[in-house]
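Our preliminary data section would be incomplete without showing what the modeling component actually yields. Below, a chain of 300 amino acids is followed by its predicted structure, encoded as tokens that our downstream tools consume directly.
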Amino acid sequence: MKKLRYTLFLALLHIHFGALAWSGAGHQVIAAEAYRQLTPDLQKKATEILKAHPDYEKWEKSFTSESPNLDLPMFIFMRSSTWADEIRRRKSPYNHPKWHYVDYPLKPPKFPVEPGPDPTDDVLYGISQCEKTLADTKATPEERAVYLSFLIHLIGDMHQPLHCCSLFTSEFPSGDKGGNSFFIKPATRGIPLHSFWDGLLGTSGKPQTHLNYAIQIESEHPRKSLKELKKAKTPKDWSLESRSIAVEKAYLHGELKGGTDRETAVELPEGYTKAAKVVAEKQAALAGYRLADEIRAYLK
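Predicted structure:
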């Protein structure tokens, strides 16, 4: 069964995923884990806030009961995690396209740590705005709902390593845009490295499937096993953590080869996909726990 799942996973990597963030499936996995970490009281508070969301009624109508483990409040929380990406495809006063990433420059071979280019319009700024809105008693119910859903999404984004970097080399003198311009070939078709990483937590499936995966990840990565939770405590810390992972695991310290388009895409080295999957699941675990902690702090 595990071999079959892995074969299907490799097949899915032939698909060109939208270069946005973790796929919708990945975001829902992280949201499900975070929701499970909350007390019933905090779950209720989050649910009440999300009822003022502009898409709440649409989400409510789309809910179908699949098991006693997945009720409407959990479904809404999970469903809200993908909204920030959905509004990037349509006009919305709440759309903030640059909030989804921070482009820390990666410059081999020494990879010196340098600041991101847009400190007032990146994922760190976006998370700070979400925190301020949730803490603001004068914010409207809709604003609090919107920025709660953004917080759920952006903390997930930040834990996708390629959302915290842009590689600068002679092939990419203007940066590779978080791997969006860096083409690799995981199977028979060239795709952006960013898209490859986006799909590591799944690309489709029912909410119950995402919940099951969240439970599996939580079981394999319990809080006490993750030293990073004590070492990196702020969004800035988390972004730099992801940057380091991008250097070490995504770009292999600058040794990963890639093309500049589909035709020049380079095959991934042996074992890369399996190793990346392990990294992605651990990142999902960290994202879920940290998201739960953020909600505890701002929904008191």
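The first helix runs from residue 2 to 12. Residues 1-19 have pLDDT under 50 and may be disordered. Preliminary results of this kind motivate Aim 1 of the renewal.
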